[in-house]
Specification:
The structure holds three protein chains of three kinds. Chain A contains ten helices and ten strands. By secondary structure, chain A is α/β, with parallel strands linked by helices. Chain A folds into two domains: 161 residues, P-loop containing nucleotide triphosphate hydrolases (Rossmann fold), CATH 3.40.50; 71 residues, no CATH class. In chain A, the strands form two sheets. Chain A has a six-stranded mixed beta sheet with strand order 6-7-8-3-9-10, with helices on both faces. In chain A, strands 2-1-4-5 form a four-stranded antiparallel beta sheet, covered by helices on one side. The longest helix of chain A has 14 residues. Chain A is globular, with a radius of gyration of 18 Å. The model of chain A has no long low-confidence stretch (mean pLDDT 88). Chain B is globular, with a radius of gyration of 23 Å. The chains are: A alpha/beta, B mainly alpha, C mainly alpha. Chains in contact: A-C, B-C. Chains B and C meet through helix 1, helix 3, helix 4, helix 5 and helix 6 of B and helix 1, helix 3, helix 4, helix 5 and helix 6 of C.
Chain lengths: 253, 286, 305
Amino acid sequence: MSETIKINIRDLNLHAGKNHILKNVNISVPKNKITVILGPSGCGKTTLLKTLNRLTDLNPEIRVTGSIQIDEEDILHTTSDIHDIRKRMGLLSQRPYPLPMSIFNNVAFGLKISGRRRKKILHKRVEHYLRQASLWDEVQHRLREPAISLSIGQQQRLCLARGLAVDPDIILADEPTSALDPVSSAAIEEKFIELKNNYTIVVVTHILRQARRIADHVVFMYMGEVVEQGPAAEILHNPQMEKTRQYLNGAFY
Amino acid sequence: MKLNFRKTEEYFFRLVMLACTVVIVAALLVIIFSILKRGLPSLSWEMISQKPKGGFYFGKEGGILNAIMGSLYLAIGATVIAMFVGVPVALYMNVHILKRKYMVNTMRFLLDLLCGIPSIVYGAFAFTIMVMIGLRTSLLAGMLTVAVFIIPIIIRAMDEVLRTIPRGLMEASLSVGATKGEVAYKIFIRQSFPGLVTALLLSFGRAIGDAAAVLFTAGFTDNIPSSLTQPAATLPLSIFFQLGSPMEEVKNRAYAAAIILTLIVLLLSVASRYFSRRYKKHSIKF
Amino acid sequence: MKERPIGPKIFSLNRYLKDRVGETWMIIAFVMVLLLPFIVGAGLYLKSRILLQEHSIWTLLVSGNWNPQKGEFGLAPFIVSSLWVTALAVLIAVPVSLLSAIHLTQYARKWFLNAMHPVIDILAGLPSVIYGVWGVLVVVPFVKRLAEWFDISVSGYSILAGAIVLAIMIIPFILNILIEVFRTIPEELTEASLSLGATHWQTIKRVLLRKAVTGIISAVVLGVSRAFGETIAVLMVVGNVVHIPKGAFQPGYPLPALIANNYGEMLSIPRYEAALMLSALVLFSVVLLFNFASRIAIVQFEKRV
């Protein structure tokens, strides 16, 4: 089975001030698969995810070198608009951060800022994405209420719908279930498996069991370096490197 | 193109925002520069070492030692009084009635209100009380008035610091047999010491700089007060009165006095920064 | 307190007494501070009652006739002046502080923000009389020249001069709150908005400003309370002419200046004291109303965002 490479990270180095956070990272993320980036906390997983989205631009102290190719376009050195690049990736963070507005406007936000304001179309799209995130039935009668009135689990699904609404082809998720109860976590995981036919999904996690449940492709990181990567079955059951083996056996978190 | 407009808009506002910050910094520099420029030539050792002599207000010799000492006495007295009233209240709110959220929140609201009441209102109110009980304008009356209006400031500042002390510290202390009073006066005070010093310096600054509250309560005199019942001159009022004079020499001395007052306040500001940094080492970090 | 069976007798009499005294004083002080606003309010009311019995509160507030010798105490010139000065000052100070706070927290480097803190501290700490001196030296001539530019000939001692001085005085307080407000907004919220394709500026406009709305309200209220009651600095530059001002270049006579200027002679003219107390009561009530209104607004907004 041949797979297309969606994101190709080559020789990525990231310095924040004097700290060398990502060291010579090379990762290939296959298209329409769930790639799980696994590793103990503080190993640079989250930073890597933010680099993919160029959110690292926010911090003037961060320097990034190397290349990140998405569909053959190097997003670190590109002439196309950074905001268009970000729109190609939906981001789901550790805890849901609903925007300070109504449920409806949370989903419509991305559409509105890119200039789509027709009421009817907006409404259709919002319904569509809320359904995709399995939230429509719960919120269809309260679309005008503030988003923070939802439960945490609902908020995370709302954030998913919000991300999907800008029509990305990649979903970046940073420990998306760490703040959720088991039922809501399961709902999110199921959603990912369902969505991978249309999206390329990158999930950062330190929960081994989650990786076992959803991963197609696994990258193991330690101290800012990629230790090992490959198909989930290989890495999780037959790792080549000593560090990976220790981690899988629960030697450290 | 749509996006181009967005970028131009952002660029424009970034410039405006930078300009606003520059204006604020520039304002400070202009204030200090303009006062230095007018006041420095008249600033002399005589100014700060002597009391006004006869004819001082017509441009003859003398200084403003009366106002400097009066202001210092007044501000020190007021701060000490305010400390003895304010600090226990802040402790009470954060140790004893911590769990009665409603009471604490009401108190915080009232404190915000008190902080918002103009000092001229306190001054006017205090003056009527003085008339009622037959107290003349004096150092004591000024101290009490200023104390009343800095008490809310001290409480609020202490409250902000005490709020950050974790509940665990109180529970741990209570569990080894300390009473709530001891937790408050011994442990919480020590834990919030830098905050206390900063709060005191902050209110001292407010006390020494305020003119409206002392206008009718402390009076004005050319002498250095030797007892609490004598009237006392204050620096802000001394500046204010001298500036009202039509004579150029007297006006220039007002600017020189303004330099002295500014220096005192700057010193306080530097000191409070220094203290809050230095004493942080002695409290447990969480 | 339970008896301790073993160990030294920790709860000695001395310790008990200290504890009681300390705690009793706490309660006394607490109650005193708790009652203070009520006492001040009631005291001011009692003192101005004589005047309120003779004239209705409404006539006193809207009448423009101020003639203490004849027993006419219309406060309108002073109230209107106060409103003018305060409104103008807040109109200058709030946008400047808001834009600067956004600049410092969103765009500027960390060292720059850190370097601004002492600037803010010093501005906040400068006594009002210093601002007044600066106003006389710099702002008044500036306003005079500005007016000449519009072909108006004035002394410069005006509402506008008062407003500019006040604006600079309240900026550090407003700015301080706003910086704190923007700093406590989680970075993830910005990231969420950016990842949806919004520009940084769109994120600020549509997300951060909404999130900051309650903080902005408290900052504005603080600014208004300070500006409304500021006495000496305004008094020195505003001109102190009793009339209802009709423009920013005209002199005014705000309430605090009225109280400060006339306190000495108030005991010699009947009802004068009551009138000044009424002005103090007006100041007090406005601050009170503003605090209540902001509290309600904040509670409302907190539910929404």
